[in-house]
Amino acid sequence: MTRDEKRTFSLEYFPPRSKQGELSLAAARQELSKLKPAFASVTFGAGGSTQDGTNQTVKSIIDEDGIDAAPHISCISTNRETLAKMLEDYRELGVKRLVALRGDIPSGYGMAEHNELRYANELVEFIRQKTGDYYTIEVAAYPEFHPQASSAKADLLNFKRKVEAGADSAITQYFYNPEAYFRFIEDCQSMGLDIPIIPGIMPITNYKQLARFSDACGAEIPRWIRKRLESYGDDLESIRQFGLDVVTRLCEKLLDGGAPGLHFYSMNRSEPVRTIWNNLNLSD
Ligand code: FAD
Fold this sequence. Notes:
Blueprint: E1 8-13, H1 19-32, E2 40-42, H2 51-65, E3 69-74, H3 80-93, E4 97-101, H4 120-131, E5 136-141, H5 152-165, E6 169-174, H6 178-190, E7 197-201, H7 207-217, H8 223-232, H9 236-256, E8 261-265, H10 271-279
Parallel strand pairs: 1-2, 1-8, 2-3, 3-4, 4-5, 5-6, 6-7, 7-8
Helix pairs in contact: 4-5, 9-10
The structure holds flavin-adenine dinucleotide.
């Protein structure tokens, strides 16, 4: 497999929250920018990160790494005025792409209390109203369905709303069942949605952390993967080798099946992404 220029290969970072975190991110950026990803996205809010943290990281990527940065922007716990200012600030920084999300509802809050814009489709509409076609807008997609969706069908219709509001492309929640992705693509095509839907890829390096994330976001770890990871216990090297093998094969299946690219959740670590990237021969 070689890198096909029509496909988009990108990655995600999160803003650091400690001195050690800053060092890890700097080391990851130094290595991963050499892969020349199409862009690096930067999370917002997840795990308590602040707007400042996202801004700082975005600015460093643009100024120092020479690649496009795409901040995640969420409409939860904020208002139109703040969002409008954010859109202008990002434009001034040279940002051209955004990942537009609702964001996770802080625990203990009801739906009515926390926002003027309630769902990501309303945020996409707002960004288009304020800035026209200036930004390329990515939205989230859920091949295994969002945990709060009332049904699979409702979730698909909600995804359709985001596309109709003006999303240019989508990045999926991570998954390890390629069939779930291909079925989701078929459903989107049958609804007339033809934007690129890029699989989100989560390398496997730490079983306990992965199990915790997956429970929270509704991603399924197939039983055979779970059982094997459990059996390795504290043998990190075996987990690493197995994880790289499983995720490389997943990526191969997705690309062979026509996926329009891959978006790697780097978790601010370079080694797993770089190894999978090289296994797939994605370097120019
Ligand atoms: P929406 O598309 O608004 O959907 C949320 C839920 O509401 C779904 O169940 C949907 O079916 C339902 N829904 C949507 N519209 C309607 C409607 N009109 N009426 C009724 N129900 C509706 N979280 C962070 O906090 N920070 C991040 O940086 C971050 N980055 C992410 C990046 C990616 C690629 C992905 C896949 C997720 C990310 N998340 C992040 C997690 C995300 O914020 C959560 O999954 C959140 O709960 C939903 O966000 P959304 O944009 O998908 O919401």
